[in-house]
């Protein structure tokens, strides 16, 4: 069975982490699977939104700790490096990625969630960077993305204590977009995917680029970057259609270019 399963249905790429016996811990095959997903989304223009979730009681409980103890330092290091690259490429994809967090999102699992564009959490979900308890530190953006999302001091506290926080607390900190009843998680993810799918794919791509790339720049550079993308957004037939539809008081009919 593949560590990461995926299927495309009606413009949505449904991805499931599938090592429930190890709480979907990240090993070499897992990273290979996530790489396949990113490549698939990049090469198949029919994909408009990606949804990631986990099988069983975890979204992902982080790196496979057994891999750290059993395989060579080289394998562990190359796996972490590849995961880091894949997450950056996922942030850079043209299409948004929704994380539907069904349970534990710890260590590398929390890091994967943070590299997604939107995080919807089941009320059963929990988040944390427990690496400190193993005598190591986060290695796939945990100290960096977390500080930018929840703030410097809270990220410091979470990484220093390894404390696990509930979905509600993660929502309060701005780490999660919304918390929903466990049984409604996938319906909510689907609803969000449908909303995004109804928009102009070109404008969706530009929003994603403006927010994600701009987030990594200083404010002034980010504003200038946004201005360039704003100008670019007018060059698409979707802009013509969106504006015309508003004037004609009808729903816009956006198409993928
Ligand atoms: N790696 C390997 N196996 C795991 C992991 C893991 N991270 N987490 C759970 N498992 C296994 C357990 O060993 C157990 O297996 P078995 O049944 O064979 O004993 C099975 O999954 C079920 O787990 P538990 O019995 O422990 O389930 P509980 O509900 O009692 O506890 C917890 C759930 C709290 C999530 C607990 O399993 C736990 O603390 N897991 C470890 C979490 C952790 O420390 N994560 C951080 C890992 S380090 C990391 O992520 C660094 C990221 C760097 C980038 C990634 C690069 C690859």
Automatic annotation (TrEMBL):
Pfam families the record matches: ECH_1
Family: Belongs to the enoyl-CoA hydratase/isomerase family.
Gene Ontology MF annotations: hydro-lyase activity
Keywords noted in UniProt: Lyase
Organism annotation: Archaeoglobus fulgidus (strain ATCC 49558 / DSM 4304 / JCM 9628 / NBRC 100126 / VC-16)
GO biological process per UniProt: fatty acid beta-oxidation
Keyword Lyase: yes
Source organism superkingdom: Archaea
Identification of the protein by name: Enoyl-CoA hydratase (Fad-3)
């Amino acid at each position: 069975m593949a560590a990461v399963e995926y299927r495309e249905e009606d413009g949505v790429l449904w991805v499931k982490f599938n090592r429930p016996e190890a709480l979907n811990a990240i090993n070499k095959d897992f990273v290979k699977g996530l790489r396949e997903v990113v490549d698939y989304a990049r090469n198949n223009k029919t994909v408009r939104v990606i949804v990631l979730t986990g099988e069983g009681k975890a979204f992902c409980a982080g790196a496979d700790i057994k891999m750290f103890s059993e395989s060579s330092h080289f394998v562990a290091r190359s796996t972490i490096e590849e995961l880091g690259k894949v997450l950056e490429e996922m942030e850079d994809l043209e299409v948004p990625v929704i994380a539907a967090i069904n349970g534990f999102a710890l260590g590398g699992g929390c890091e994967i969630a943070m590299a997604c564009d939107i995080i919807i959490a089941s009320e059963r979900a929990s988040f944390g960077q427990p690496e400190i308890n193993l005598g190591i530190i986060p290695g796939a953006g945990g100290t960096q993305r977390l500080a930018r999302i929840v703030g410097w001091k809270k990220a410091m506290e979470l990484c220093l204590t390894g404390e696990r926080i509930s979905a509600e607390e993660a929502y309060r900190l701005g780490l999660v977009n919304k918390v929903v009843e466990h049984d409604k998680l996938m319906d909510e993810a689907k609803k969000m995917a449908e909303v995004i799918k109804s928009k102009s794919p070109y404008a969706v791509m530009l929003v994603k680029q403006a927010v994600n790339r701009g987030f990594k720049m200083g404010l002034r550079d980010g504003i200038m970057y946004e201005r360039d993308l704003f100008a670019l957004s007018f060059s698409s037939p979707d802009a013509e259609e969106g504006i015309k539809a508003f004037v004609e008081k009808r729903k816009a009919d956006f198409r993928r270019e």
